[in-house]
Amino acid sequence: MAGSRGEFSSRLGFVMAASGSAVGLGNIWGFPTQAASNGGAAFLLVYLLLAFLLAYPALMAELILGRHAHSNAVAALRQVSTHRLARGIGAFTGVAGLTVAALILSFYAIVAGWMIAFCLSAVAALFGLPPVADWLMSFGLPRNILLVTVFMVLTISIVASGVQAGIERWSQRLMPALLLTLFILAVYVLTLDGAMDGLRVYLMPDFSRALSPELILDALGSAFFSLSLGVGTMLIYGSYLSDRENLPLLGGIVTLVDVSIAVLAGFLILPAMYVALHNGVEIFAASGALISEDTLIFTVLPELFATMGLAGTIVSLTFFFLMSIAALTSSISMLEVPVAYVTEQFDRKRRPTAWIAGAVITGISCLILLNFDTLFGLVITVTTRYSQPLLGFMFCVYAGWIWHRNTLLQELKKGYPQAQHSLFWKVWPWYVKFICPLIILAVFAHSF
Ligand code: TRP
Questions:
Q1: Is the CB–ligand 1 distance for residue 329 below 6 Å?
Q2: Across all residues in the chain, what is the average pLDDT?
Q3: pLDDT digits over 349-396, tens only?
Q4: Atom of ligand 1 nearest to the CA of 25
Q5: Residue 290 phi, psi dihedral angles, 5° rounding
Q6: 240 C-alpha to center of ligand 1: Å?
Q7: How far is the CA of 227 from the centre of ligand 1 (A)?
Q8: pLDDT digits (tens, 9 = 90+) for 274-318
């Protein structure tokens, strides 16, 4: 079976795919306002430290486990030990991970569907079709079901085509497009009146807020979500890496890209919000904090675009296009987790497996849409607040405690012969053994 497994054709292909997974809605709608409301540049510094000191080691645990096994998370975790109980718990963790990945995708696809709807709405407005444009901006059930299905069909088509012809090829197309769009939008928005106030709010450091323990724990949660940790996504991408690659280096690049794009997004979102303020749009919630997340994206920014005339329609189209591709390169990495498991474990063909798994997940999305008020928030909380940190903890335990230190070193040495003498090897095993699990437990305890 190993011969029929996919593999990324190049280092760049992996970096694009893995950073495509990491860079998503979390980076663009979460990070910038979180930073602005919580100490600006000081928060940024805390976030950077957390990303490199804690999320990066956890990312490495997944990449190394995956590359060593060259198989899906269930098989990889089972393979780490010869002990029956440890093998059983490992397999269970893998199955839990793919279930959580599927559930995360089921709500993520709903939000991504909204992004496509707003993008298409701008297109409809440009073509002089106001009724269609309005319908696409309304949050009605038929629209939501239609667009979640459109988004899932895109996701499934890419995953069905395989690792190289699907995931790698599309990440290599979409990631440069994402970066370019983000850059152009930020430069444009920075020229508008009011933008500099936003920049000031974003970058003015306030250490008294950024160093509160509450906030550090929240920032860690965001960093874990942002690097797609805890459900086997990065493990499966690591498993498609060749033995010639230097893992600590590649993991470092992916972390750097993820953080940089979050920071870059701040140069777009904060100035845009203050341009909106300048144009008379309300940007503060009742609590006095900046409006964030869904209200920011689907209310504040559209109100801003509406004040800008034709230019606003074009900026709206570009912005929601950017959000849609950011979501797509992330969603393919979520769907890949269950698909890789079923194809390998049950010896199934990839294409039908991708369509069936995707259809089931679309069904769950529709179920959430039908019971939106009860299910939407619940699924997000259960998967991202509780399951993800707990599963991330298990991955670190398997890499740090269950896995034999020598095998670990041998794995690292592939593609990195000097590994033994590196700072990474001096620090990381210790880190992933003690620090990462402890911090994750602290975050977890905190969330209760
Ligand atoms: N990291 C992505 C974001 O920031 C989302 C994502 C992709 C994800 N794959 C994941 C989150 C797996 C959790 C688990 O939007």
A1: no
A2: 94
A3: 999 999 999 999 999 999 999 999 999 999 999 998 889 889 999 999
A4: 15
A5: -65, 140
A6: 18
A7: 6
A8: 999 999 999 999 988 899 889 999 999 999 999 999 999 999 999
Residue nearest to atom 15 of ligand 1 (CA): 24
Residue 40 banded pLDDT, cuts 50, 70, 90: confident
What's the sign of the alpha-carbon dihedral 126, 149, 378, 226? negative
Task: Report whether residue 44 contacts ligand 1, using a CB cutoff of 6 Å.
Answer: no
327 CB near ligand 1 (under 6 Å)? no
Query: Is the minimum distance from the CB of 392 to ligand 1 under 6 angstroms?
Result: no
CB 19 within 8 A of CB 258: yes
pTM exceeds 0.70 for this model: yes
Give bridge partners of residue 350 from the DSSP assignment.
none
User: Is residue 27 lining ligand 1, measured as CB closer than 6 Å?
Assistant: yes
Give CA–CA dist 71/73, Å, rounded: 7
CATH class, 8-115+158-352+384-446 region: mainly alpha
d(CA 374, CA 368): 8
Is the predicted pLDDT of residue 416 greater than 70, yes or no? Answer: yes
Cβ of 444 less than 6 Å from ligand 1: no
**Where exactly are the structural domains of the chain?**
8-115+158-352+384-446
Residue labelled with tokens 């699990």: 437
